[in-house]
Specification:
The chain is mainly α and about 260 residues long. Helix content is about 55%, strand content about 10%. The strands form two sheets. The chain has a three-stranded mixed beta sheet with strand order 4-3-5. A two-stranded antiparallel ribbon has the order 1-2. The radius of gyration is 30 Å and the shape is elongated.
Length: about 260
Amino acid sequence: MSSTTSDGPREKPLHELLTTSLVDIYVGPDNTHWVLHEKLLCHHSPFFRARFYNKSEHPKSASAKTFGLPDSDDLPFELFVGWLYSRALRYPEAEKDIGPLLDLYFLSEQFEIEKLSEDVVETVRAFYHNASSYPGLRRVQYVYANTASDNPMREMMVNSIARFLTLSDAIPQHWENALKKNGQLSVDIIRSIQQWHLEGRTVPDARDASVGPDGGRVGRSEAGKGVEMGFSKVEEGSSMDAEIKKEEEEMNGSQLNGGS
């Protein structure tokens, strides 16, 4: 078993992990065959460590030194093998390369390799930042379908979209449709904005009559026009008793005038 620290497995030189013990991994519906160094794989992955070292819980894979991943695709696993032996990721050349990286991220979660998960999140983040772009709707939906609420990749995606929608002049139609259907995504975006801890004076106050519909200040003459903003007088804290008494006096006065 590999020694560990509070941050995970203790780092070892690569040559110490390239022993003669090998394992066979079969990937995808075509059973693409990969032969990997057992010690290297198990050093980084608690998932594989349990399957190849724990004979009581996983007797078949531990004895045969084989494991199948029929639901995985070849490219993400190829990226995983590249990271495993080099501890580096191939930087995406275009947005289309993000898809395999997301699948690699899901593999890292399955294999319980925290460092790989962090590296993928940072690579995806850097790509969108350097490209001055944001994750598309289908990318966000894909991440939401495959992660839990506190997942780092999900948080990075939703934080990016919160900024995109806040700075946009309008909500794109496909995003509007998605937000209407996915209440959790809408809530997460609001929570993301709340984490910015904006100062009250920087946010337009619709209760202020001098603030126009677009958030800008309006002239004093315009401020007095239109419907008064705000909650009811009861919610504002003033009593309605005086208003009711005034209405009763006016009604009594009109009745007296009508009878004279």
